[in-house]
Design goal:
Length: 290
C-alpha cells in the first residue's frame, strides 16, 4: 500500500482481478461549530497491463496533463473560548503524621479515620464524574499552605477538608464555611494576599456548604439544616469554593458507629458537589475572579 501525504491523503490498494482502487480523502475539520468533511472520493480504474480495460496513454511527445487543483479543506471559524465548570475536587484528610487530631478513649485517632473516609468519598465523587486529588494518601502531614496550594493550582476545583470532632452529638455531621473576612486592599498588581485567598469565594462556599449540609441532615438525625460559619484555618488560604465537613465523634466506645456513617457522608458530599456544579462558572482567563 502506498501512502502519499500532500494536499490530500491518497491510498492506492494493489490491484485485484485487473483493477485497482484509488481512495482520496480530504481532511476532517473539527471546530467549536461542528465537524465538516472537506473532501472524500473513491474511484476505480483498470490496472496497468490489462488489455481489455487498458486506457489510452499520452505519447512521450505530448506534454503531461496538468493535475487538478488541490481541494482545500473548509475553514470553520473558531468560537470564543467558553467558561468551564467544576471538574476537580481536592479532598483533604485533616491532620496526619505526628498530628493525630482528636483522640478517643478507645484508641481512635482522627487522622486515621478521615483517611479511611476519604477513600469512600473519593469513589463517590468519581462516580459523579469528578477528578479527585488528595492532599495526602498516607500518614503524612502537609502544611496548611501546602494543602491550600494544591487546590489553588487547579482551575475548576472545589476543596473539602474532612474532620472528626471530639464533641457534638454522636452520629451527627456538620459543614463549616469560613466566617466573613474583609478583603485586604489589592496591590497594584491586582493580586489578593495569600491569607485572604478565600475572600472572593465566600458566597460560593456558602452555597456548596448548604447543599452538602442539607443532604447530611437527611441522613443523620440531629444534624444542622444549613452550613455553619467558623474560623477554619485551612479554608482561609484556599482560592476555591471550600468547606470543612466534621463528624461526631471520636469519643464513641465502638468505632463501628462512625464506620457506618462513611457511606452516607460520601454520598452527601458527592451529590452536593454535583448539584453545585452548575453554580460555579470558572472564568475563562486564569487570574480572573469568580
Amino acid at each position: 500500500m502506498l501512502l502519499d501525504v500532500k494536499d490530500r491523503l491518497r491510498f492506492i490498494v494493489p490491484e485485484r482481478s485487473g483493477f485497482r482502487i484509488l481512495l482520496i480523502f480530504g481532511f476532517l475539520v473539527i471546530g467549536p461549530m461542528g465537524v465538516g468533511l472537506a473532501f472524500a472520493r473513491q474511484s476505480t480504474s483498470p490496472a496497468p497491463g490489462n488489455p481489455q480495460t487498458q486506457q489510452p496513454t499520452a505519447s512521450s511527445s505530448q506534454a503531461p496533463a496538468t493535475p487538478p487543483a488541490a481541494t482545500q479543506p473548509a475553514t470553520i471559524p473558531s468560537a470564543p473560548a467558553q467558561p468551564t465548570g467544576v471538574n476537580i475536587v481536592v479532598l483533604d484528610p485533616a491532620h496526619g503524621g505526628t498530628d493525630l487530631g482528636a483522640r478517643g478513649a478507645g484508641g481512635i485517632h482522627e487522622s486515621d479515620l478521615v483517611l479511611e473516609f476519604a477513600a469512600q468519598i473519593r469513589a463517590a465523587l468519581e462516580g459523579q464524574g469528578f477528578q479527585v486529588l488528595q492532599t495526602r494518601q498516607g500518614n503524612q502531614n502537609p502544611s496548611f499552605d501546602d494543602r491550600s496550594a494544591l487546590a489553588n493550582a487547579q482551575r475548576g476545583a472545589i476543596f473539602v477538608t474532612l474532620h472528626i470532632a471530639s464533641t457534638g452529638a454522636p452520629g451527627t455531621a456538620r459543614v463549616y464555611v469560613l466566617s466573613d473576612i474583609t478583603p485586604a486592599p489589592t496591590a497594584s498588581t491586582g493580586l489578593i494576599p495569600w491569607d485572604r485567598a478565600q475572600s472572593p469565594f465566600l458566597s460560593l462556599s456558602h452555597k456548596l456548604g448548604d447543599l452538602v449540609q442539607a443532604l447530611l441532615a437527611q441522613r443523620f438525625k440531629g444534624s444542622a439544616l444549613v452550613a455553619q460559619v467558623a474560623s477554619v484555618r485551612q479554608l482561609r488560604t484556599t482560592a476555591a469554593p471550600a468547606i470543612a465537613v466534621e463528624l461526631s465523634s471520636v469519643v464513641v466506645e465502638d468505632r463501628t458507629a462512625l464506620d457506618h456513617m462513611a457511606p452516607g457522608v460520601a454520598d452527601a458530599i458527592a451529590r452536593g458537589a454535583a448539584a453545585f456544579r452548575p453554580s460555579y462558572v470558572v472564568p475563562v482567563n486564569p487570574g480572573e475572579l469568580p
